[in-house]
From TrEMBL:
It comes from Mesembrinibis cayennensis. GO terms for biological process: methylation. SUPFAM superfamilies: S-adenosyl-L-methionine-dependent methyltransferases. GO terms for molecular function: methyltransferase activity. The keyword Transferase applies. InterPro entries: Methyltransf_16 (IPR019410), SAM-dependent_MTases_sf (IPR029063). It comes from the Eukaryota. Keywords: Methyltransferase, S-adenosyl-L-methionine, Transferase. The gene is Mettl21c. The keyword Metal-binding does not apply. Coiled coil: none annotated. Gene3D superfamilies: Vaccinia Virus protein VP39. This is MT21C methyltransferase.
Length: 221
């Protein structure tokens, strides 16, 4: 199912040299906006991973192909919030989700980088993969145009609930964009499972960073 050949890209050094002396802040520029991200050393989800840089860069450069303006966008495993902030700058209605312990830092980054602008106000919500999906995000109310996920696949035990979550939110018409660093056999196994369920295309590869960016959509019978 991986027919089209992906474009080969390099993650650009989009971050700005640090002006502040704080070790925990990273400065980026996307879509003409300066974005300041506070990382947290306590949590995996609170560091900017390469997949987030790859997807942010791709969304910025492919606005015609993936026009996020006024679209409903859900990010799962939003981490520091960089991708959600970029989607917000591109005009989307964004819901950024992650585990409870990550939400404080995520909310801080998102509000700090999107306040005082004319963007749609993003929402930050708890989402534990595979848990309470029907209760928290009932299908009757929630339909997303785009599901964004970056570096959600690594050595962890929640891969089946993650896949279940992707399947739950991917309705006909929804586009899932998933960027990930591929290191382990489990990463490729997940990719294979995804390809068995969805129409899957590799849009771009960033070989220096071992990142692949995939697009997946529901198979319509």
């Amino acid at each position: 199912s991986f027919t089209d050949s992906p474009v080969i890209l390099k993650i650009l050094q989009n971050w700005v040299p640090r002006v502040s002396h704080y070790f925990d802040k990273e400065h980026y520029t996307y879509v003409g906006h300066q974005i300041v991200i506070q990382e947290s050393i306590e949590h995996f989800g609170a560091v900017v991973w390469p997949g987030a840089l790859a997807l942010s860069q791709y969304l910025e450069s492919n606005q015609e192909q993936f026009n996020l303006k006024d679209k409903k966008v859900l990010e799962i495993g939003a981490g520091t919030g960089l991708v959600s902030i970029v989607a917000c700058i591109l005009g989307a209605y964004v819901t950024a989700t992650d585990l409870p312990e990550v939400l404080e830092n995520l909310s801080y980054n998102i509000s700090r980088n999107t306040q005082n602008t004319n963007m749609h106000k993003p929402e930050v919500r708890k989402l534990v993969w595979g848990e309470g999906l029907n209760e928290d995000f009932p299908v009757s109310t929630y339909h997303y145009d785009f599901i964004l996920a970056t570096d959600v696949v690594y050595h962890h035990t929640a891969l089946d609930p993650l896949l279940e979550t992707m399947v739950y939110f991917c309705k006909p018409g929804t586009v899932l964009l998933w960027a990930n660093k591929f290191r382990f056999s489990t990463d490729y196994e997940f990719l294979e499972k995804l390809g068995n369920i969805f129409n899957t295309t590799i849009l771009a590869e960033f070989p220096e960073s071992n990142v692949k960016l995939l697009k997946a959509t529901v198979r319509e019978n």
